[in-house]
Design goal:
By secondary structure, the chain is mainly alpha-helical. 81% of the residues lie in helices and 0% in strands.
Length: 264
């Protein structure tokens, strides 16, 4: 009897969560059917915001993967002085409010910031540019990739790598042909989650990069702007982001399954 009640409670809890998430989504879809939101998707604001978001998140992910992969490997496999501090710093962006992250970036790389003031001497301005958008996205999203990649590398059997080294393989070759393929499901999952986080970034971007159409106005900023003057356009942009979210989820699951099959 107790098991039945426990199972019933668990199913009820799952139903509540599913309903709480699905009702706003359904409401969004219903609005697009009864309004001119579809036409708003072809507006210059929507198209420019979509294009900018695709470009900046693509660059963000390339940087996160190129820098984050070796960094995650070091965190997973080596002990060094200050490792706990570095490990904690990697997690800071995950718990820091995005608005605080934006202020921190502005104070560091803004025109009068700790580093920005010296860049200004050479005529290099970072804040309120597309570069600032990428930096904001990288700051808040890289954690997801590095952490997931570190878990993946930590789960790789070291005996397999050792066997390759004994057979004469170079350490870099063993890393690329053995370690990375074995950790690939975790790398894919981390990359897609980081990309999704970068796509949805708002607080750090609007403070550090501003909200300039065609330059720094990404999808979340465009939604915020259009909500104040054109609800249909805001709904249209929200629907586009929702579509990207579902695409990310299904892509992560598909690639993770394929990578796991390949590893096995």
């Amino acid at each position: 009897m107790g098991d039945v009640l426990s199972s019933g409670s668990a199913v009820a809890a799952l139903g509540l969560i599913a309903g709480f998430i699905s009702i706003p989504i359904v409401s969004l879809l219903i609005w697009t059917v009864d309004s001119g939101a579809w036409a708003a998707m072809r507006s210059p604001v929507a198209l420019e915001a979509l294009s900018l978001s695709i470009r900046t998140t693509a660059v963000t992910m390339c940087i996160a993967i190129l820098v984050g992969t070796p960094a995650a490997y070091v965190l997973a496999r080596f002990e060094f002085p200050g490792k706990k501090l570095v490990d904690s710093l990697v997690d800071i962006p995950a718990v820091l409010p995005p608005s605080a992250a934006g202020i921190a970036l502005l104070l560091a790389f803004g025109r009068f910031g700790l580093i920005g003031q010296y860049l200004e001497v050479f005529g290099a301005t970072v804040s309120f540019t597309t570069v600032a958008v990428i930096m904001a996205e990288l700051f808040v999203a890289s954690h997801f990739y590095v952490r997931q990649a570190a878990i993946g590398f930590g789960g790789v059997d070291r005996d397999v790598e050792a066997a390759a080294l004994v057979d004469g393989a170079r350490r870099s070759t063993a890393f690329m042909k053995i370690t990375v393929p074995l950790a690939f499901p975790a790398l894919i999952a981390g990359a897609m989650m980081a990309w999704a986080r970068a796509l949805g970034e708002f607080g750090a971007t609007i403070i550090f990069a501003g909200n300039i159409q065609g330059v720094t106005q990404t999808m979340p900023l465009a939604i915020y702007t259009e909500f104040q003057r054109n609800l249909d356009a805001a709904v249209a942009l929200s629907l586009l982001v929702l579509g990207f979210a579902f695409t990310v989820i299904f892509t992560v699951r598909y690639l993770t399954r394929k990578a796991t099959e390949y590893r096995e």
